[in-house]
Amino acid sequence: MPSSTAIISARGAKRLAVGHPWIFRSDLVQAPDAAPGAVRMADQRGHALGWAWWSPTSEIVLRRVERDADARIDRAWWRARLAHAIARRAPLAAETNACRLVHGEGDGLPALVVDRYDRWLVVQFLSAAIEAQRAVIVDVLQELASPAGILARNDVPVRAREGLPKDVELVAGSVPEEVAVNEHGVSYLAAPWTGQKTGAFLDQRENRVMLRALARGRALDVFSYHGSFALHLARQAESVTAVDASAQALTRARANAARNAITNLTCVEADAFEFLRDAAAAGEQFDVIALDPPALAKNRGSVEGALRGYKELNLRAMRLLAPGGLLFTASCSYHVTKPMFLDVVRDAAADSQRPMILRALTGQPLDHPEVLTIPETGYLKGLLLENGEG
Ligand code: SAH
User: Fold this and answer.
1) What are the chain's domains?
2) What is the Cα–Cα distance from 367 to 85, expressed in whole angstroms?
């Protein structure tokens, strides 16, 4: 008999019980007779399992959002859930005007991303169920955040798996090409329409501040994008070199340096692997290095190649470290886990023949919550290392 409730297998129910919200197609026993959106779930014995986002074309057909089957997923529900997520970020307001307001599953709101850039919001509707609820989401965000404009950066590949088009769309008000972000006393321009992610890499904010506090001498920012690490380092170090393969990113890095009246930054357009190799061959040394490559593993199949890439980059960076020098190295590849990253950096340390001291292990900031039972909410890890040579 058709029903609006989704029936899931025992294996699916077990997954929910250990704190993971996803139900895969193979664990769907009976599809709900419903359009994409919020549906009730139950197991085969009729035991209610709460509410989930229903995405009929996705491999992840259901994502649980609410344990209480008697709840109603209405405007008041959305208001409470979004207000809770926004309130978590309150401590950041003193130091920045840009942060992630909603980090999908990390905030109990699967497939929804909302980033705030000053008075503007950039959203990503990442599943058919979320897309179907766009109107209420936008309405509540207007009420809670009073933005001057809302932009949807829906130009992401996962949308295809949900049967949704890839596009960039103005959803409310107006959104400028560039927004000035203040980040712990540094100012940079984010590009919500065209920049990477939703306009900037907000997730490295605290790592930049950490490295800046320790910076001195000659600093190097590899994979600099628009110079976010470099701008912070330039405040403390004597000189900073920013390296990126994108001329466009470096043009913005130079403009950002000018905004901050920074004059000790040099931008180099180069392949990072080649730059690091050539700098070592030339006998160069740096006192502080930030190494923040793009996700080298885009999927499970590319992990092995990615690990070779991380090893090579880290080895080359270690060879450039002056005695006592600091390396902050990061990986934002979800498929490269924390233990894998630590192992590969350890391999690089062994090959470097330097006693690399582990000073800090970092994860995601307050506004990108990683829920321990939902590995997919975590992707960013960082190591602060010191060359222990005297
Ligand atoms: N550190 C930055 C984010 C880096 S994003 C921040 O905190 O904001 C990754 C950057 O790597 C992009 O700017 C991209 O242009 C650059 N990139 C990708 N492949 C590269 C390569 N082989 N050599 C140098 N830069 C590369």
Assistant:
1) 5-66 (2.30.130.10), 75-179 (3.30.750.80), 203-387 (3.40.50.150)
2) 9
